[in-house]
Amino acid sequence: MEIAFYVHHHGSGHLMRCLAIASALKNCHVTFLGSALGQYRSLIPNDINLIFLPMDTPGDQDPDFLDKSLEGLHYAPLNINGQLQRVNMITSFLTSRPKLLFIVDVSVEIAMLSRLCGVPTIVVKQHGLRGDLPHQICYRNAVGLLAPFDEQMSGQVPKWINKKTFYTGGLSRFAPSEDLSDASKKHVAVLIGSGGTSINSEFLDYLSNKCPQWTFHVMGNIQNTQNIKNLHFHGKLEDPRDILADCCIVIGNAGHNTVMECASLNKRFIAIAEERPFKEQEEKARIIDELALAVHIPAYKIFDVDWKEMLENLLTSRPNWNGLIKSNAAERAANYLTDTHRDLFQRH
Fold first, then answer.
1. Nearest 5°: phi and psi at 189?
2. What's this model's pTM, rounded to 2 decimal places?
3. Number of Cβ atoms within 10 Å of the Cβ of 187
4. Which domains does the chain have, with CATH numbers?
């Protein structure tokens, strides 16, 4: 079977999700297309074909760039050389792969391009307010929607979208386990993603100063500018599991991978929702807050919170993430893709 993934370049979450699903596909020729795949080359198995797309943003070579608003699409500016090149590369690839199923994670424009080429597309469904015209057109024209989370986390969606969606269950690189950390140690993990965050040096200094009895283990790309006793910087880790296991609370943004990893390890979680298109993180944080699984704090309020009181209060209860993570979520997604491929191409 020919299966390809368009991997969006913002953050690492799209790639990690696609990698997990691709690893579960059996007897398939798999291709990844994306604009930032080079920086993750060491993580991608050699048996996955890679197509490195140019960016679709204006550069010095685009003096006639015009960002004209339009209906039905989110982003289709005029006179960008990189955009023209990437569309040519994508359509050339689609032409070269008969009986291809294309999974788009995520882009309305790429999904619609694929559909215009007559190539069936499955769109990865994310959280957020997706009732706008481009999303509605995209969802209606996809052969299916793939949600890498449990239906309990879907929020309020129209019935026709819910009917069209396959929910894999929570998809995480960590197997589900109980939280065995010692809360008396007062160790907190702070996760800093790569998609843009308000969890910066200023906030970490503020947090450590307000909570001197707590120890914070910071993971991600951030510089240790001061030698503060209760701040420990671990840098960007390939596998943060051991440190997470030792911490009784996790602070992080409400990105999909962070939420799923906290769920799989059954952690108390403080979700700092950053501003994202379509309020993606805010909606996800709101849903898990309403399910009593996490505490939701909008990014603009992080200096208004009594962090000492919040951390102490969190120790009085435990969340119950059980059921929201499925250890076989990647396999379920892979089976959905291969079943869809058979339905589309092997009916005769």
1. -90, 135
2. 0.92
3. 19
4. 2-171+327-345 (3.40.50.2000), 183-314 (3.40.50.2000)
